[in-house]
Amino acid sequence: ILTESTDILLIVETLKTLNGFMPYIPHNFIFDSNIIDILLERLLKEPMFSNETLSCLSEIMLVDSPSHTKIKLSIYSKVLEKMKSILPYEFDFNLAFTNGTEVQQSFLRILSLFFSQSLRAYHELFAPNYDLPVLIDGLWYLISSTNIDDIEIFKICIEFWKSFTSSVRIDKSRSENRPDPTTRRLVEGLTPILSRLRFVVITHMKRPEEVIIYVDEHGEVVRQFMRDTDSINLYIACKDTLTNLTVLNPEEMKTIILERLDNEMNAPTFSPGNLNCLGWAVGSISGAMSVEMEREFLVRVLKNLLSLCDEKKGKSNKAIIASNIMYVVQQYPRFLKPYYRFLKTVLNKLFEFMTETFEGVQDMATDSFLKIAKPCKYQLAKVQHDEVRSFIEEALYILP
C-alpha cells in the first residue's frame, strides 16, 4: 500500500496503523526491510503524509537496538536536512504555531517529539566521534520548539532538557576530572545552546506550588492554590533544568537574571508575567551557586524587589511583587541564617504583608514566615549583637 497506492486516505490510515504497531514489530523487520526508505524517500516529502510519517519515524528512533545505531543516525540526519529546507530552526516557531492550521500545529508537536526522542540518548547515537554540527542543529530545533506557547509541546521539550542538562553535567564533571578531549569538545560545543536555553526556560518558567498569587489567562491577578499534579510536575522539570544550567555556568545564570531584573525595574510599563517568571526562576535555583555568589546574587535580587514594591502603585501590582519576595526568601534559608540583619528585614516585611488586605497575600506571608522560622529558629530565639531582645520577644512585644 505504501509503495503503490495512490489513495491518500488509505495511505494515511495505513501509516496510523503502522505507527500504532511499531513498538511490537520485530526490530529486524523495521531496520532490514525497505520500510524506512519508503517513509523517508516517498512519504515524508508529501505534506498530506508528513505528520503520520514523522510519527512513525519518531517511534523508530525509540527502538532500543544498539546494532542499528547507524541506521537511526541516518534517519535523524535525513529528517534534519529535510526540516532545514522547509522550516529552518531560525524561524519563529511560536508565530508559525499561532498562525498555523490544526494540521500544521500537530506537525510542530510531532517534530518536537521526533527530536526529543532522537536526542534523548545522544551519546549512543553520536559516539564515539560526535558530529557536533548535526547534534547541535537538532538541539536548536528543540530550543525553537520550547519557545512555542503550547503546553503539550513545552512538556515534551522541558522533560528532554531536564534529562539532557543532567547528562551534560556528568559530561562536564568527567572532562574536568580526567583528560577526555572528545567530551571536552562536546561540552564546549554546547555552550551557545545552553546559553540560549537559560534565557528560554526563564521566560517560560512555571508557577511553583508555594505561590498562590499570580496572573491568570485574562490578565487578572488572582489567588489560587495549586492542586494540579501536572502543573507541579512541570514546575519541578523547569526547576531541575534551571538548577543543572546554573551548576554548569553559575556566573552566566546570575548575569542573565540580574540583567532581566534590571530591565523590569526600568521598563516603562510593569509586566507581572515577566516578573513572576524571574522570581520563580530565582527561587528554583537555591543551592546551585557557591555560598558567596549566592549571597551577592540574592542581596541584589531582594533589594530590587523591595525597591520595586515601594515604587509601584496599585494593590494588584504590589501583591505580585510581594508574592515574588515571599517565594524567593523562603527558598533560601542558607542565605538568611548567617545574616541576621537581612533576616530581620525580611521577616519585618512579611509582618507588613500580613496586614495586606489583597486576597492571598496574608496567607502566603504566613506560610513564608513558617518556612523561614523552622530552619532559622535559633537565630530568632537568640538575642543578637546590638539587640535588646530576641526577634521572637520583639515580635510578641509589638503585637497588638
TrEMBL record:
Q: Which GO terms describe its cellular component?
A: cytoplasm; nucleus
Q: Which GO terms describe its molecular function?
A: nuclear export signal receptor activity
* Gene Ontology terms: biological process: protein export from nucleus; ribosomal large subunit export from nucleus; ribosomal small subunit export from nucleus
According to UniProt, the name of this protein is Exportin-1 (Trinotate prediction)
Which species does this protein come from?
A: Henneguya salminicola (Myxosporean)
